[in-house]
Design brief:
The chain has 495 residues and is α/β, with parallel strands linked by helices. Helix content is 32%, strand content 23%. It folds into three domains: 62 residues, Arc Repressor Mutant, subunit A, CATH 1.10.10; 305 residues, Vaccinia Virus protein VP39 (Rossmann fold, 3-Layer(aba) Sandwich), CATH 3.40.50.150; 95 residues, Nucleic acid-binding proteins (OB fold (Dihydrolipoamide Acetyltransferase, E2P), Beta Barrel), CATH 2.40.50. The protein is built from 13 helices and 18 strands. Helix 4 crosses helix 9, helix 5 packs across helix 6 and helix 10 crosses helix 11.
């Protein structure tokens, strides 16, 4: 019995019946086939065929699923997630699963003093390598303790930060009730585990997760952690990782009809590809996206990786992908700012039990990592943008590309807020941009000038649009940037 005949028959029956047992398919087949053989043939295609499979003893119940409509979160969905983000943390169930993996790999208790010291050493090595630049910077996860160090130190932060972004995408209506996800450079399964975790707080939605990973040690950890964590929630299906090097990726081996493609803290580590080659790779991979699918790229918030990611996003925009967020292009033209350092800052996570155990030493600060700061970009094929502003016909706003003409003058500006407060007690300082900047521009509010007329800036969310009226332009020669000095007569409005 050929797989083609089984699949063809399955499509026919699933169109006729909303619900049936897989064993019923035998009645429609010309040749004999076992339930297991039928399942093996249709299992890789069931998500695209729009059905759900529920195992029941020696058989499977097949349910026709609603088409992938826009995900609209219920009040209960949002209540659960808002509660989680008030005190974000790795779940105790997942903590224990990671501890069990350490015990499996080392044949000792996870908190054995010798094991903890070896994990500390792995963390120190990774951190030393991470902060190197140029050819000396090589981050590798080919050895067992490298993975354990990653799970102990980087994983909790990356795990939570993706959930922040995924939740925002869900609230913005970018996700579907049935979504196919591709995680590129999955490591030990950080993004799949984060997705499973957030789906534990969502109802009536389904996800199918595919991943790409090259290192055997990562795949071993992935296969231990991800399927087990997914087993607690039946609405997430996890596929075996595709074993491939990102820099030599065979696009044809990737699944079709991808709704969300994720590059989380991985492209900065691909040293075999330059900016042009990374751009070409992602553009080719975008052919696997659905027409309303999204690509999300996340990188660390440090200056080198953040500015590198911004350059990549602009190159991708030039090649035809559209930036949904956080950047907003209020005017025509291209961003030419070479070093745009912009990142989001969220509430710190709770340290894991493993982190706390590692910190029981002479230098505890080395092993506690709870700070959520990251740079990201969401790209799409369509023209959808998170923030949009229409300007009245008679409105007069200066473009930041022309700001040098207005030095020492008062102007009106429409722009996006691209940082939290970077100032101190005397001055509030915010990075701003309108998509045309040639040099860095900051809005500055002296504490004595803060009022109800301009406090909207202090409440604006990252990436949101504001209008600033009657603000003084001052060139900052020391930093080769421009400051917009907010005075008592300045008025700031949020979108």
């Amino acid at each position: 019995m050929s797989d083609r005949e089984i699949i063809s028959t399955f499509k026919y029956v699933s169109r006729m019946k909303k619900e049936f047992m897989l064993s019923e398919l035998k009645n429609y087949l010309k040749e004999e086939a076992s339930v297991r053989e039928i399942y093996r043939a249709i299992r890789p295609l069931h998500f695209d065929l729009g059905v759900d499979i529920i195992e029941e003893k020696d058989d499977y119940r097949i349910l026709r699923s609603p088409s992938g409509k826009q995900m609209n979160l219920s009040e209960e969905d949002m209540r659960k997630n808002d509660l989680f983000f008030k005190s974000p943390a790795v779940s105790r169930k997942l903590e224990r699963l990671i501890e069990k993996y350490i015990e499996k790999k080392t044949s000792k208790e996870w908190d054995d003093p010798q094991i903890l010291e070896k994990i500390r050493k792995a963390i120190r090595v990774q951190k030393n390598s991470y902060w190197k630049e140029g050819s000396g910077r090589k981050i590798s996860y080919e050895k067992g303790y490298s993975i354990l160090g990653y799970l102990a130190y980087q994983f909790p932060v990356y795990f939570v930060q993706f959930q922040y972004l995924f939740y925002e995408m869900a609230k913005d209506g970018l996700l579907k009730t049935r979504i196919k996800i591709l995680d590129v450079g999955s490591g030990p399964g950080t993004i799949p585990l984060a997705i499973i975790d957030i789906y534990n707080r969502l109802e009536d939605y389904r996800a199918e997760i595919h991943s790409v990973e090259i290192f055997d040690e990562n795949i071993e950890a992935y296969n231990f952690l991800v399927p087990e964590y997914a087993s607690f929630k039946s609405n997430v299906t996890v596929e075996e990782p595709i074993r491939n090097d990102i820099s030599k990726l065979d696009i044809e081996n990737l699944p079709d009809k991808i709704d969300l493609m994720v590059f989380s803290n991985v492209l900065n580590e691909v040293k075999d590809l330059n900016l042009r080659e990374k751009t070409e790779l992602i553009i080719k991979m975008s052919e696997k996206l659905t027409e309303n699918g999204s690509i999300i790229i996340i990188e660390p918030a440090d200056k080198v990786n953040s500015t590198g990611m911004r350059r990549l996003s602009i190159e991708l925009k030039k090649k035809g992908l559209k930036i949904y967020s956080p950047c907003t292009f209020l005017w025509s033209g291209e961003c030419t700012l070479k070093d745009c350092w912009s990142f989001e800052h969220k509430k710190d996570i709770k340290p894991t039990r493993l982190m706390e155990a590692l910190s029981q030493c002479d230098e505890p600060y080395r092993y506690i990592n709870t700070d959520i700061k990251y740079s990201y970009v969401i790209l799409r094929k369509d023209k959808l943008a998170k923030h949009f502003m229409e300007f009245p016909a008679k409105s007069k706003f200066a473009r930041l590309s022309h700001i040098s003409k207005h030095n020492k003058k008062h102007i009106n500006v429409a722009c996006s807020v691209m940082s939290e407060d970077l100032g101190d007690e005397k001055y509030k300082l915010y990075r701003i941009c309108d998509g045309t900047s040639k040099k860095a521009v900051y809005a500055v509010i002296p504490s004595h000038n803060l009022s109800e007329h301009n406090e909207a800036l202090t409440k604006a969310r990252y990436g949101s649009i504001i209008k600033i009226y009657n603000v003084l332009v001052k060139y900052n020669e020391a930093n080769d940037s421009y400051n917009l000095l907010v005075g008592k007569g300045t008025v700031i409005e949020s979108e």
